[in-house]
Amino acid sequence: MAAAGGYYLGVDLSTQQLKAIAIDDNLNVIHETSVKFDDDLPEFGTQDGAHVHSDKLTVTTPVLLWVKALDMLLERMKISNFDFSKLKSLSGTGQQHGSVYWKEGAIQTLKNMPDDRSLHQILETSFAVKESPIWMDSSTTEECLQLEKSVGGPQNLADITGSRAYERFTGNQIAKINKKNPEDYKKTERISLVSSFVASLFLGDYAAIDYSDGSGMNLMDIRAHNWSQRCLDACAPGLKEKLGAPLPSHSILGSVSPYYVKRFGFNSECKVIAFTGDNPASLAGMQLQRGDIASTIFLRLGFPVVSMRLFIEFFSFKNGSLTREKIRDESASGSWDEFAKALKATCPGNNGNLGFYFDVMEITPAVVGIHRFNAKNCKVSKFPKEVDVRAVIEGQMLAKRAYAEKLGFEVLKDTRVLATGGASSNPDILQVLADVFNAPVYTRDTTNSACLGCAYRAKHGLQAASGQSFADTMKNAPEPKVAVTPACEVDKVYGPMLARYMELEKLVRNNC
Ligand code: 5FX
User: Fold this and answer.
1) Nearest CA owner, ligand 1 atom 4
2) Which residue has the higher pLDDT, 180 or 308?
3) Is 0.70 surpassed by the pTM of this model?
């Protein structure tokens, strides 16, 4: 068990930024740093952390951007006098499904990193594929159909892996690379997920993929907790060796590479705990209890892995914060204050006006475009500005509730909605969330629950070795606080509106 007085680090490589949160032994946050890809690393020319290719379906991020971001993050921590020597362990998380292709020989480079050079300089030639496919990619429909066919249909694939084939899932992305760029695939000695890639950088060795993130690849037999040979064979040759064996999410992978000890003053005993996907990490950060709802993903604890995957599937929306920002720019002069004024100037239910704002192809429903309806259910091309603002927020919240209910979720008397992510610091948006769910919304001090969750997981990883559960580790953690409560009688508005939302969604789906 870890002695008192240590620090634990969580690292989160999300779509738009790399972030670190350190906590002390009492689980208090003692340090936060971030690197924003577009602003801090403009030389890579990303927009919102990604390159959207001309077909509008292929979405990638340069892998060296991620490497350089880690250099920058650690330098920033060093400049702010963060005491790396007190770190007992670290863990982390990454956007799910994205993949990194290590070139033949990269393992030797990783194991022998000279401390007088940046990671970016050391690893410049270590990747067979320079642009990593990420979760926003939807270019692999052909590969999905092929994979489902090879195992006897979508249901069979779901029985094995927990999900039907999805374009962004890693197996289909790997199949595309093998088909379109077979030379790159051949040159690849190891494939990491975004999460296990960052773990590898800290470890100075290839890090195992954890069971949880591995279940978002369309490749894992989720009951056997191992790769399904049928799925591997359907995607690309020799894949098992390139993936390495998956491990439980609390596994200690080893100590940090001597590179970090010499360059930043890490403790040589600092352990690297397996990294995982951002959605499972968020659950750890939010400390969900049975019956709670989390606002970025919706989950009731206590489900087996199959259902958990299904829940994450249903509650991953591509059109979230970026779509809200777009409407803020178009209808609220690019200002959150104006956006808040517009929300306050309109009433719950928006006088019957309702909108679907899918700036990019949504995951569920698979629809793109902006679809606005007036109170008579007639499609209109525009709303007045303040109506547009309320419509985008109500539409997003109604979608969350509608999909939660589809899976059997019921709002009970003691239901709490736990909000995380950027919008959780905006009380006016939270008010709509509370009203649509007719339940109080709770928030934590940090908006990044995935990163915080990994700082908690880092601590738990050390304690798990002596049999402690995650709940044991968390027993003295600060509780989330009530941020807003629902307005009176608001369920009378949103109850009927939810039914209308589902009807209109059907219409939009059929018309697209
Ligand atoms: C989950 O399946 C998703 O695709 C997204 O939530 C990504 O994990 C976002 F990073």
Assistant:
1) 135
2) 180
3) yes
